[in-house]
Design goal:
This protein has 4 helices and 8 strands; from the N terminus they run H-E-E-E-E-E-H-E-E-E-H-H. Helix 1 packs across helix 4. The chain folds into 2 domains: about 90 residues, no CATH class; about 50 residues, SH3 type barrels (Roll), CATH 2.30.30. It has about 150 residues and is α+β, with helices and mostly antiparallel strands. Strands 4-3-2-1-5 form a 5-stranded antiparallel β-sheet, with no helix packed on it. Strands 6-7-8 form a 3-stranded antiparallel β-sheet. Strand 3 and strand 4 form a beta hairpin. The protein is elongated, with a radius of gyration of 18 Å.
Length: about 150
């Protein structure tokens, strides 16, 4: 179930932050053999990347037309921008905030009231996929405000 929620959140992030799907250093793509690669550079007709599962320093080549771009792993900044543009609950001063502790809170900024604490974003891991694998409650929280 968490993977379905994660994929839904990814789609929303890609809508709000199209640059997460731009081909750039560190971007992931699937090559012609179905392997997930990490993009390093390109030539006129090829992408060059390293195999994600081995993280070796060997560069592999893939014809551009055979590759499927997966994008970069969204960060907290991408998530916050998506919440700002796609949230279904922003009204009458109600907003989502990230506290310095990483707590994700639903607050009313006009009345200075905390409505409830929802989840925590582990600030030492600025990756949505890390939260998918280690804090599924954060993924569930994000799904609830973006659905």
């Amino acid at each position: 179930m968490t993977l379905d929620l994660y994929n839904f959140i990814l789609d929303r992030i890609h809508e709000a932050c199209p640059e997460t799907m731009m081909l750039k250093f560190g971007c992931e793509y699937i090559d012609h053999k179905g392997d997930v690669m990490i993009f390093v550079r390109m030539s006129a007709n090829h992408y060059y990347g390293i195999l994600k599962r081995s993280m070796s320093n060997v560069l592999y080549s893939c014809v551009k037309s055979d590759a499927k771009i997966l994008g970069t792993d969204p960060t907290l900044a991408d998530v916050l921008r998506t919440i700002e543009t796609k949230s279904n609950r922003k009204r009458n001063g109600d907003e989502w905030m990230v506290m310095s502790s990483g707590e994700l809170r639903y607050v009313n900024v006009l009345r200075h009231e905390i409505k409830r604490n929802e989840a925590t974003w582990n600030l030492s891991h600025d990756s949505l996929s890390w939260h998918r694998d280690n804090q599924p409650e954060t993924i569930e929280f994000l799904y609830e405000i973006l659905k």
